[in-house]
Write a structure and sequence with these properties.
By secondary structure, the protein is mostly helical. The chain folds into three domains: 216 residues, no CATH class; 166 residues; 33 residues, no CATH class. Helices cover 70% and strands 6% of the residues. The protein contains 13 helices and four strands. A four-stranded antiparallel sheet has the order 2-3-1-4. It holds the Pfam family Wzz. It is found in: Cell membrane. Keywords: Cell membrane, Coiled coil, Membrane, Transmembrane, Transmembrane helix.
């Protein structure tokens, strides 16, 4: 079908197309005028996604997520917010609404659920582009009711959002309170264990006792070393005392004097033996004095030997005492080491319990504060105002749409009728019908084919 044929069909059936257009526009206009007027109002809320947490002071990364705004829109559209609006407006307490609910549902289900579904049908939530503002639109036949519901949805959203933040904090607060009590009990138990251990073993300061006992052990060890040296020296003198090479013997003035006197008497005795004879009284006197000096020398040497032996025995006894004392001191130090290790374990238990108690107590304090907060990062930017003009029906828009649709319907109907009853309206139609060449066009049809002349 050419455009010329299309125009010829419209010219031939324009009455039908105009009739369809008129009926469509009239019907649309009548319906628009008969429909009840609807009023739409909007409340805007703003979300501060960069607001720090009131307890921790940190910016929550979840608020920066791409789906955060979509989640907030879903919260506003949720049944929980709608039910909160019903309770705020006390709609479930109205006798008229209760009667309407019974008539509509025959008493089945819950009134608050029915009202929430009705409110959600006329609710339109739209987030603003590239911002954190959300527009809450509500449409109703009564402008006052629409305004009240829009503002109620904004406030209910804030309340529900706050409750969503506070409810987990309340659960955490209860949990951390129990954990704090348990941590305090563990700390007190650890402190009591340390106190009982100190009382049982009489320990006031393990470090001071340890220092004292260690110093005493070192001192005993030093004394033992000294005594062992003296005992070794006494033992060596004991073995060499008969050889007269012991220092005490060699350095004794009395023994040296006796030896000198013995040497002089021996010299005189020899002279007397030679000059006077062996039986001479002088010789015998010298011999008696010599024997007396030798006996005295033997006695003095024996005294020194006895003294060395006594020193050796005393040294051995002292060495044994110091060995026993050293062994006891070692056991005491080892016992103190064990007690100190046990004390350190008990102290570490206290420190661990203290850190755990402080950490849990801090968390309990934070969650307790968070559970009592009444602030949120959402605020009403623009409350809903009373609309002065209805938003529905849109008479002008509906009329324009009906003109467009009526025109399409009229043209479509004309084409359908033409296809059912095809007529020759131009040379092209005749050519299409007979499949014969057109030799000429006569009559008024020449005006429809520009560039061609009529045959005469």
């Amino acid at each position: 079908m050419t455009f010329q044929q299309f125009l010829l069909i419209l010219r031939a059936r324009y009455k039908i197309a105009l009739l369809v257009l008129l009926v469509t526009v009239t019907t649309s206009l009548g319906v628009s005028l008969l429909l009840p007027k609807q009023f739409t109002t909007s409340a805007a809320v703003v979300i501060d996604v960069k607001a720090p947490d009131m307890v921790s002071g940190m910016i929550l990364q979840g608020m920066m997520a791409p789906g955060y705004m979509a989640t907030q829109v879903d919260i506003i559209n949720s049944d929980r917010v709608a039910k909160t609006v019903v309770k705020m407006l006390k709609m479930d307490q109205s006798a008229i609404i209760q009667k309407q609910w019974k008539e509509a549902t025959k008493g089945e289900g819950q009134l608050i659920d029915w009202l929430a579904n009705l409110l959600q049908k006329d609710l339109d939530v739209k987030p603003a582009r590239e911002s954190t503002v959300i527009n809450i639109n509500y449409t109703a036949a009564d402008p006052d009711f629409a305004t009240a519901v829009a503002n109620a949805f904004a406030q209910a959203y804030i309340n529900v959002n706050l409750d969503l933040q506070v409810a987990p904090a309340r659960q955490y607060a209860t949990f951390f309170d129990d954990q704090t009590k348990e941590a305090r009990a563990k700390l007190e138990k650890a402190q009591q264990a340390l106190s009982d251990y100190q009382q049982i073993y009489g320990i006031t300061s393990a470090d001071e006792r340890m220092d004292f006992e260690t110093a005493k052990l070192n001192e005993t060890s030093s004394q033992l070393t000294g005594i062992q040296g003296q005992t070794t020296d006494s033992q060596s003198k004991r073995l060499n005392v008969k050889t007269d090479t012991v220092a005490e013997v060699m350095q004794s003035p009395l023994i040296n004097g006796l030896k000198a006197d013995i040497a002089r008497l021996e010299s005189r005795l020899k002279e007397s033996n030679v000059n006077l004879g062996k039986n001479h009284p002088q010789t015998q006197r010298y011999e008696a004095e010599l024997n007396s000096l030798k006996a005295q020398l033997e006695g003095e040497t024996q005294k020194i030997t006895s003294s060395i032996e006594t020193s050796y025995q005393i040294g051995r006894a002292r060495e044994k005492q110091l060995l026993d004392a050293l062994e006891k001191q070692k056991k005491r130090v080892l016992k103190l080491n064990k007690q100190r290790d046990e004390l350190n374990v008990l102290r570490r238990d206290i420190e661990s319990a203290q850190r755990s108690f402080e950490l849990v107590s801090q968390r309990a304090s934070q969650t307790n504060i968070a559970s009592q907060t009444n602030q949120t990062n959402i605020a009403v930017l623009n409350p809903a105002t009373l609309p002065t003009t209805p938003s529905k029906p849109r008479v002008l828009l509906n009329t324009l749409i009906s003109i467009f649709l009526g025109t399409l319907l009229g043209v479509g109907l004309a084409l359908i009728l033409e296809l059912k009853e095809r007529k020759v309206r131009s040379a092209h139609d005749l050519f299409d019908a007979l499949d014969l060449p057109v030799l000429g066009i006569i009559g008024s049809a020449t005006s429809l084919l520009p560039g061609k002349k009529a045959l005469t």
